[in-house]
Design a protein that fits this description.
The chain contains eight helices and 39 strands. By secondary structure, it is an alpha/beta fold. Helices cover about 15% and strands about 30% of the residues. The strands form seven sheets. Strands 15, 17, 19, 21, 23, 24, 26, 27, 29, 30, 33 and 36 form a twelve-stranded parallel β-sheet that branches. Strands 14-16-18-20-22-25-28-31-34-37-39 form an eleven-stranded parallel β-sheet, with helices on one face.
């Protein structure tokens, strides 16, 4: 269908920064490294029984975002450090791609970020030059930013990802010497007034020389306001040991922002959606309002796609050229072929829509629904586990389940396939060019032959032969002497 593919941060595949086979064109691939993802925090401010890293952003867990970015770097080893809710986190991750390749470390009790990294040490590949430390609640960090960090780290340096903020309140400050070199990082609670005035902050993301970690971590102290072992204290140890300390400044602060409460989660959700919307529009997609679209997975679009207000796309959705999606639609794991129209308030899941087909408004396509070219599915029609062939029409108030509908079939309003007997489901087959009258019940298993006509109001319990009229109705009668009932008064 000539689709433009978008990665989770909204860049089209033909972008010079797009990933292909684990590399980014125009960027040399860094050496393989260890990645440690810190995910042991309790997340008290989320006010939830769900571990913080499992809260969803753009349809998937915060931790899953971080893990997907980590995999794009093709590391030798990925170790996730868990603590509060660790079993729930591991259980959720068990269904993720390549889950079996992950290493898990338990931090109990939680004594700080450096203590968390220490729990991961036994699982790291000691032969790798670098260990990259990420956070399970920082979901929007881009792979190209991490590549820059790793390139600046080289093989021996300690490299810190920094940012400059007009108001750095709450963040650790980067302290530099007169020559601009980083000498240490100080947490705000431990900072002096001059240090608190500094605007360059530590994001917490670091690339560290793996060989140095055992010695450095063993030398750390928890003599600070939090009584914790700070990962940031490794900077001062590196300076003392003559190890170069370098930095990379993040271009967009939202990349390095973490989630501590539902307000921050919602803010990053909007940022993520805004980035995707802008990428879609740059690729030629017409969005009625880029602030009112939610992509919770992967959306691939052909040329001249039009998407109206308040649409939600989940899983993998493919929209062919000249497709139009009306307002307030939900599409989950759907393929829509060229020229199709999905009208307002329609819900499509695990289904396929053929070229030039029309769906809705207020239609529901459930898993297993397959519409051929030029099919018309109208208002309040539900299709489930059924194939509807080319140019057939089901325009009003009908349920079609477990059925094979041929080409050029017309199904009248109020038609129901009675596919379930309380224990088993059976299929209904309707041949090409059949006509099903309104208010018909098709009691499966049953076959309607090609060219057959089924009269309105029929309950069909036996096969209808081709090219014939089949109907089941009581003879119509009229009673001249009948009187309409009259409402009784309360006293009568």
């Amino acid at each position: 269908m000539g689709l433009a593919s978008l990665n989770p941060f909204g860049m089209a595949e033909n972008s010079p920064l797009s990933r292909q086979g684990g590399t980014y064109r125009n960027h040399p691939k860094p050496e393989i490294m260890n990645i440690v993802i810190l995910a042991a925090g309790q997340g008290k401010r989320m006010n939830s029984g769900l571990p913080k890293v499992l809260h969803a952003l753009a349809g998937k867990a915060l931790l899953r975002h971080v893990l997907d970015t980590a995999r794009a770097l093709e590391p030798a080893r990925v170790c996730i450090v868990v603590g509060h809710g660790g079993e729930a986190v591991r259980a959720a991750a068990s269904s993720w791609e390549d889950a079996a390749a992950l290493c898990w470390a338990l931090q109990e009790p939680q004594l700080g970020t450096a203590h968390a990294l220490q729990q991961a040490l036994p699982f790291l590949d000691k032969n790798e030059a670098a260990t990259l430390v990420l956070y399970g609640d920082v979901p929007l960090l881009r792979a190209q930013t991490l590549r820059q960090l790793l390139q600046a780290q080289g093989r021996e340096a300690l490299c810190v990802l920094t940012a400059k903020l007009p108001d750095p309140t709450g963040y650790g400050r980067i302290v530099r010497d007169r020559n601009g070199g980083i000498v240490r990082i100080v947490e705000e609670k431990d900072a002096s007034q001059p240090e608190r005035a500094l605007c360059e902050i530590n994001t917490g993301i670091m690339a560290l020389p793996t060989a140095r970690l055992p010695g450095w971590l063993a030398r750390l102290s928890c003599d600070n306001a939090q009584a914790e072992y700070y990962l940031t204290d490794l900077v001062a140890l590196a300076v003392a040991d003559g190890v170069p300390v370098t930095s990379v400044s993040v271009d967009a602060l939202w990349e390095a922002e973490g989630v501590n409460d539902q307000v921050q989660r919602a803010a990053l959700e909007r940022r993520w959606q805004r980035e995707n919307a802008q990428a879609l529009m740059r690729a030629g997609v017409h969005l009625a309002d880029p602030e009112r679209i939610d992509v919770r997975g992967e959306l691939l679009c052909g040329r001249d796609v039009v998407i109206d207000l308040n649409c939600v796309f989940e899983g993998r959705v493919e929209l062919g050229a000249d497709v139009a999606i009306g307002p307030h639609c939900v599409l989950k794991n759907v393929r829509v072929a060229e020229g199709a129209r999905i009208h307002a308030f329609s819900h499509l899941e695990d289904c396929a829509v053929g070229e030039g087909a029309i769906v809705g408004p207020y239609a529901r396509l459930r898993p297993g629904a397959e519409l051929g070219p030029q099919v018309h599915i109208g208002n309040f029609v539900e299709i489930k586990n059924s194939r509807v062939e080319a140019a057939s029409k089901i325009n009003h108030l009908s349920y079609i389940g477990d059925a094979d509908i041929g080409s050029r079939v017309n199904i009248g309003a109020g038609t129901i396939t009675c596919n379930y007997d309380g224990a088993n489901k059976s299929r209904t087959v309707v041949g090409d060019d059949a006509f099903i009258g309104s208010n018909t019940l098709l009691v499966a298993p049953i076959t309607v032959g090609s060219g057959a006509t089924v009269g309105a109001g029929t309950t069909l319990t036996r096969d209808a032969p081709p090219e014939a009229l089949t109907l089941s109705r009581a003879a119509q009668t009229t009673r001249i002497d009948w009187k309409r009932p009259v409402r009784k008064t309360k006293n009568s």
